[in-house]
Amino acid sequence: MARSLQCFQWFWVSGKTLNMQLTLEFGGGLELLCDSKKIHSVNVEPQNGADKLIMKDLLSWVRTNLIKERPEMFMKGDTVRPGVLVLVNDCDWELSGQLNTSLEEKDVVVFISTLHGG
Amino acid sequence: MARSLQCFQWFWVSGKTLNMQLTLEFGGGLELLCDSKKIHSVNVEPQNGADKLIMKDLLSWVRTNLIKERPEMFMKGDTVRPGVLVLVNDCDWELSGQLNTSLEEKDVVVFISTLHGG
Amino acid sequence: TVDSRNGLTPDMIYRYSRHLLLPSFGVEGQANLLKSSILVVGAGGLGSPALLYLAASGVGRLGIVDHDMVELNNMHRQVIHTEKYIGQPKVKSAAATCRSINSTIQIVEHEEALRTSNALEIFSQYDIIIDATDNAPSRYLISDCCVILGKPLVSGAALGLEGQLTVYNYNGGPCYRCLFPTPPPTTACQRCADSGVLGVVPGIIGCLQALEAIKIASAVGEPLSGRMLLFDALSARIRIVKIRGRSMDCEVCGENTTFTQQKLREFDYENFAQTPLSPAPLKLNL
Amino acid sequence: TVDSRNGLTPDMIYRYSRHLLLPSFGVEGQANLLKSSILVVGAGGLGSPALLYLAASGVGRLGIVDHDMVELNNMHRQVIHTEKYIGQPKVKSAAATCRSINSTIQIVEHEEALRTSNALEIFSQYDIIIDATDNAPSRYLISDCCVILGKPLVSGAALGLEGQLTVYNYNGGPCYRCLFPTPPPTTACQRCADSGVLGVVPGIIGCLQALEAIKIASAVGEPLSGRMLLFDALSARIRIVKIRGRSMDCEVCGENTTFTQQKLREFDYENFAQTPLSPAPLKLNL
Ligand SMILES: [Zn+2]
Ligand SMILES: [Zn+2]
Fold first, then answer.
1. How far is CA A7 from CA A22, B17, D173, in A?
2. What are the backbone dihedrals phi and psi of residue C40, each rounded to the nearest 5 degrees, phi first?
3. How far is CA D170 from the centre of its chain?
4. What is the 3-state secondary structure of A65-91?
5. What pLDDT does D4 receive?
6. CA-wise closest residue to C132 among C112, C147, C117, C153
7. Contact B99, D27 (CB under 8 A)
8. Nearest CA distance, A7 vs chain B (angstrom)
9. Whole-prediction pTM value?
10. Domain boundaries of chain B, sorted by first residue
11. What is the pLDDT of residue D247?
12. Ligand nearest to the CA of D144
């Protein structure tokens, strides 16, 4: 039998900025646009004073801060170019709201270009 | 610039029994000892009134509740038999304290028998 | 008796004995496989291992479509072809190797490029299609044919040090166009001939394609539908991710589709993807 | 000039052009591969694809150890052997196929069972060892030899619908005995001959073994050391897990080891693992 137990815990979270730690991965050739580095550990602030970060914001952050060349190979308009899959925690962003997907601390976001070779 | 923000959050956790939800997986032939089922979603209570669950307790729980035949193919003494790897959250239990590894809610524990075929 | 063995002859029982011993595969799985027909489009880097393992495993009828000739610069990864076939059609070379490892199954040679004019007719002769091609327009043409004919499609790709694998149009799952309604810009479509590929990477993906086709043909296990495998050879990392389901708005498999056999025959895939269906090989310039 | 091409002839440049085009592999990776020597122990289910891809990729010297004959019931998975070699030594059959796809590399035939009396001498002729055997005592013997001679070991296994893969004794990583100091009970050591195996499962693991050996030989990428790949074909799930490091207490690679070449020659592996090194095939009883 489990011993009767009582747990009290309290948390206080406070801060002027909510810096979010994310892991971004690029594959299928997209890594060539960011110095051939596939895995990026980054800290991203919510944009325009919002209290949460959504994929739309992350995309423009990536374009500004990580993409070093040929940004048209990464984005088209305000979303990714055709042929790029976006995965948030190993799940297609189509299933979580695409550009409106909310991100949380320690999320893993993968951008991968579809391959055609064989 | 991020808007200045203040978050207050508090949590209250209380309970008479601490039922822990775990995912147990068997592979490399060990699934044959538990009705050929590879993945088991289980709820396990800490044993003997302890306030936490360690691998030693889980092993005896598995032996009692899941192993349907030939327990000597799963355990030897109070640990797994030679040739069985134990992984807690995709990590060899040798790296986390073996029988003394503490388990947490939603942990995934894999028991896999090493293969020799080719 | 013939019944308890599901029509397997003593020779078949001996040849496939390691399959028959498997409780979750067994005589029924093997009998299903022997009754099935699988088409492999492309006898290159992906097609080589896929064809070897499909022939060996006992698929009843195995078709091969390709129009290329074997070249020396294929040999580093296209392990089904031997040096003596250099300069000869890949289909002939691949068929000869398949027959040399299993003379008891039917091998069908389609020595022609896949086009809108022949795709439906060829595909309709098979239960399962394997996309082992190397260019974007072929991938759209193959997927569209599979949707129209209701065939599951095992799709693999490999380039550089990476590979990708999924099953399309299976059991209500998405088609290629559900994922990629718009073709990528041609500058994003690198081919092995342009960018290189480590030979064993298509080897791994092609074997995985054979496995998925065998699972579907034998009705054993859970095919990789609605999921995609992403393989990174350099770091030895593999992800299996959840992808979107069938799109109601898909132009080919969606609810209000107007895509018919006639439309497919008239569709200009080369213009759509801005790439030829049978690209000419580039010269190496070191 | 010869220098800028690292000694590659024009024929080699053409044959391996898809490797040379890879920025992260390139001329240097290919030159390393051509200078390397790899031994594959076992020309069966794992050895077949490993040998095909190692030969095709341009490993300079490729050794094959096996003492078995090709049988019809091997053909469902051992795709390197053709029907005309049934009844002949697997080493001869495998070597012939390797030569037919790449006549420019050296293939060495070791047509003998691996034993304590010949293992050290054979292994010492190669840079990298691939364990493609099918029984526990061979796995201990191979690992112990690799520790004593300081060779990296690419170890694969497949049974039923599952496969496992890791690299031992590489760059300070663990050896087979660090993970398995005590052999499992013989009742836990099923073999493909007893329990069956889906042919394409060793195909996938054998290709992955070739990849890991190529990465080590070419000094490109991160080998799967300290990690183990677990493959489940039925559900199409793959885990790559972190395993323990080298054990200070390991009887063979640990700090206070007394395991020498002499001790290995006298070690009774069959008694240790309670299994013969070259098990006789069992008869199928359906
Ligand atoms: Zn669709
Ligand atoms: Zn050791």
1. 31, 11, 42
2. -105, 115
3. 14
4. HCCCCCHHHCEECCEECCCEEEEECCE
5. 61
6. C153
7. no
8. 5
9. 0.94
10. 18-113
11. 97
12. 2
User: Residue C236: which residues within 8 A CB-CB, separation 6 or more?
Assistant: D211, D212, D215, D221, D222, D223, D224, D227, D229, D240
When pLDDT is cut at 50, 70 and 90, the band that residue D195 belongs to is confident
Residue written as token pair 């998925």 = C212
The token duo for D4 is 């800028």
Say what the pLDDT of residue D3 is: 53
Distance from the Cα of residue B118 to its chain's centroid: 29
pLDDT of residue B51: 80
- In chain D, which among 132-161 make CB contacts under 8 A with chain B? 132-136, 139, 156-160
**Could you give the ipTM of this predicted complex?**
0.92
Render pLDDT for C35-58 as a digit per residue (tens, 0 to 9): 999 999 999 999 999 999 999 999
| DSSP element (H, E) containing B93 | none
Q: Report pLDDT digits (tens) over B41-87.
A: 999 988 777 788 999 999 999 999 999 999 999 999 999 999 999 99
Q: Which ligand has the shortest distance to the CA of D153?
A: 2
Half-sphere exposure of D57 (CA within 13 A, CB side): 37
The model's pLDDT over D129-164, given as tens digits with 9 standing for 90+, comes to: 999 999 999 999 999 999 999 999 999 999 999 999
Give SS3 for D12.
helix
Instruction: Calculate helix-pair angle for C47-57, D200-218, nearest 10 degrees.
Output: 150
C-alpha–C-alpha distance, residues B17 and A5, integer Å: 7
Per-residue pLDDT tens for C83-132? 999 999 999 999 999 999 999 999 999 999 999 999 999 999 999 999 99
Residues 6+ apart with CB under 8 A from D266: D116
Say if CB D165 and CB D158 are below 8 A apart: no
Under DSSP, the state recorded for C23 is T
Distance CA D233, CA B31 (A): 15
Contact of B105 with chain D, judged by CB distance below 8 Å, is answered with no
Angle ∠(A43,A47,A50) on CA atoms, nearest 5? 115
The closest alpha carbon to D50, from D158, D125, D137, D196, belongs to D158
- With CA atoms as reference, the chain C residue closest to A28 would be C162
Q: How big is chain C by its Cα radius of gyration, in Å?
A: 19
Q: What are phi and psi of C24, to 5 degrees?
A: -85, 0
Q: What is the DSSP string of D77-139?
A: T-TT--GGGTTSBHHHHHHHHHHHH-TTSEEEEE-S---TTTHHHHHTT-SEEEE---SHHHH
What is A18-113's CATH superfamily? Answer: Beta-grasp domain (3.10.20.30)
Ion ligand 2, residues whose Cβ is below 5 A away: D 175, 177-178, 250, 253
pLDDT value at residue D277? 86
**A23: Cα separation from own chain's centroid:** 7
Confidence of residue D192 (pLDDT cuts 50, 70, 90): low
Spatial contact of A38 and A1, defined as CB atoms under 8 Å apart? no
Q: What span, in angstroms and rounded, lies between the C-alpha atoms of C158 and C150?
A: 26
Residue C233 to residue D222: CA distance in whole angstroms = 9
Paired strand residues for D242: B91, D227
pLDDT exceeds 50 at position C183: yes
Cα–Cα distance, D72 to D74 (Å, whole number): 5
Locate the DSSP E strands across chain C: 37-41, 61-65, 106-110, 128-131, 153-159, 162-168, 227-232, 237-242
Measured CA to CA, the distance from residue C171 to residue D137 in angstroms comes to 45
In this structure, are residues D45 and D158 in contact, taking their beta carbons and an 8 Å threshold? yes
Residue C125 CB-half CA count within 13 A: 17
Kindly determine whether residue B38 and residue D232, on different chains, have CB atoms separated by under 8 Å. Answer: yes
Yes or no: say if D39 and D125 are a contact pair by the CB < 8 Å rule: yes
Q: What is the pLDDT, as a whole number, of residue C143?
A: 98
Minimum distance, in Å, between the CA of residue D32 and any CA atom of chain C: 14
For residue C277, give the amino acid letter.
Answer: L
Query: Do D221 and D22 contact (CB within 8 A), yes or no?
Result: no
